[in-house]
Design goal:
Blueprint (H helix, E strand, L loop, with lengths): L16 E5 L11 H7 L3 E7 L1 H11 L9 E5 L2 H4 L5 H15 L5 E6 L1 H5 L4 H12 L4 E6 L9 H10 L4 E2 L4 E5 L4 H13 L5 E4 L9 E2 L3 E5 L5 H9 L3 E2 L7 H15 L4 H23 L6 E4 L6 H11 L3 E7 L4 H10 L5 E6 L1 H11 L3 E4 L1 H9 L4 E3 L2 H4 L8 H23 L1
Parallel strand pairs: 1-14, 2-3, 2-4, 4-5, 6-9, 7-8, 7-10, 10-11, 12-13, 12-15, 13-14, 15-16
Helix pairs in contact: 7-9, 10-11, 11-17, 12-13
Length: about 425
């Protein structure tokens, strides 16, 4: 069994938090569509935005010209922005054309963007109207992916939160697992829980709307992603109860997450150990190989995805790294608290961002590895700092036991690359 108590000196849950508000460096919430459209196989994400929004999604997704993706952009032209056309009439026409061409669509998300919110298009009213027109075959919902309102991963949070009010009611005692995971990781998670005898499970998001997800007062839910604050609140309003746990990153985090769920459903220690012993051993072995290059190294996190706190816990406790600063766009005590309890005391915990001030701190600290957004990585590399793109941690399967070694490897590779370059330069 792992010792899941904080290290001597206490954790970081009660540590002072540096809160700054200024210029920030993040992607907008539209980016979440890139993994959500792959996960929800009967959904379509229609962004109401500009050509810039369309170019962002196409370049981020790497969509080939002959592909049939489950997202698109309803382009706001100059006349729309000037109020010379009725945007709702235009939207109704585009939605009708889309659904006629794509009868496989069962869920349609109208996604707000910076342009649509600046000119105040009421997408909530549009979604309600279009749901009445196209029901029962298509359910139309809306959420905001605007960079004015949302940061990188908040797009998924806003999407899932928009689904909660329309979920069916249930009185059954069920486990709801919340957060979009790659299918292979989701299957591993369900297999582990199934082997423990926990099979009364629902998923949000489900792969298809036909796999009905319901919620009620007897529902307990566990988050698989640390950036789902609005979804957490929406589920609580429906009467569901949250199972607090560290995020399932690494061997320790995965074990603690599974243990919290197992305890809730009365799984005995012998069963738990029998199910987890082999994958835990594989995870420890895989982590140890990558940790050889991480042990004793320092790391600095810029706020980006809200993954920063659980990742810092993983890297410090399982890989031997020292965290200098751990920045997160938002810190939610009910969600991040269990990881903060385990994060060894010492790093500066920061919430929000004034990017210029944070750049001053990273330059002064000169950490061995800096985790930041794409816009900061190249300039910092030019200054001699080794960086890791934060976005890669969202697009890569990193949850649960079988991915633990890959997660550690994402951090060890840039350090190994830097050491190789130094050797070659010396020769």
């Amino acid at each position: 069994m792992n010792d899941l108590t904080p290290t001597p000196g206490g954790g970081c849950r009660s540590a002072p938090v540096l809160k700054q508000r200024g210029q920030r460096e993040v992607f907008c919430g539209l980016t979440g569509i890139i993994w959500l459209h792959r996960k929800m196989q009967d959904a379509f994400f229609l962004v109401v935005g500009s050509r810039t929004c369309a170019h962002l999604l196409q370049s981020a997704a790497g969509v080939m010209i002959f592909a049939e993706p489950r997202f698109g952009t309803a382009i706001l032209e100059e006349q729309d922005l000037a109020g010379m056309k009725d945007a709702h009439t235009e939207l109704d026409r585009e939605v009708a054309r889309l659904l006629q061409r794509r009868p496989d669509i069962r869920q349609l998300f109208l996604v707000g963007s910076c342009p649509s919110e600046v000119i105040k298009i009421d997408l909530a009213r549009a979604a309600e109207r279009l749901s009445q027109v196209h029901a029962p075959h298509v359910r139309v919902l809306n959420y905001s992916g605007s960079g004015i309102e949302t940061t990188f991963t908040e797009g998924e949070d806003a999407c899932l939160a928009s689904m909660v009010p329309v979920l069916k009611d249930t009185a059954a005692r069920e486990l709801l697992l919340v957060g979009a995971l790659p299918d292979v990781v989701e299957d591993q998670m369900l297999s582990l829980l199934g082997q423990m005898g926990i099979d009364n499970i629902r998923l949000l998001p489900a792969r298809r709307i036909d796999e009905t997800t319901a919620v009620g007062a007897n529902t307990v839910f566990a988050l698989t992603q640390p950036f789902l604050g609005e979804t957490h609140a929406a589920l609580m309003r429906r009467g569901a109860r949250h199972i607090p746990a560290p995020m399932p990153f690494g061997e320790e985090g995965t074990t603690a997450w599974l243990r919290a769920v197992a305890t809730e459903f009365g799984v005995d220690d012998a069963t738990f150990d029998a199910v987890t012993a082999a994958p835990r051993a594989r995870a420890r072995k895989a982590i140890a190989q990558a940790a050889e290059h991480l042990n004793g190294k320092s790391i600095f996190f810029f706020p980006d995805s809200q993954l920063e706190i659980p990742l810092a816990r993983f890297l410090t406790r399982e890989c031997g790294m020292t965290a200098v600063e751990v920045g997160s766009p938002y810190i939610h005590d009910a969600i991040h608290g269990p990881d903060l309890d385990l994060l060894p005391a010492g790093p500066q915990i920061s919430e929000g961002q004034d990017v210029d001030l944070q750049l001053d701190r990273v330059r002064a600290a000169r950490p061995d590895l800096t985790v930041c957004g794409l816009g900061l990585a190249n300039p910092l590399e030019a200054e001699g700092l080794t960086t890791k793109w934060a976005i890669e941690l969202v697009f890569t399967p990193v949850h649960f036991y079988e991915q633990a070694g890959d997660l550690a490897g994402l951090f060890s590779r840039p350090i190994r690359r830097k050491s190789v370059l130094r050797v070659e330069a010396a020769e």
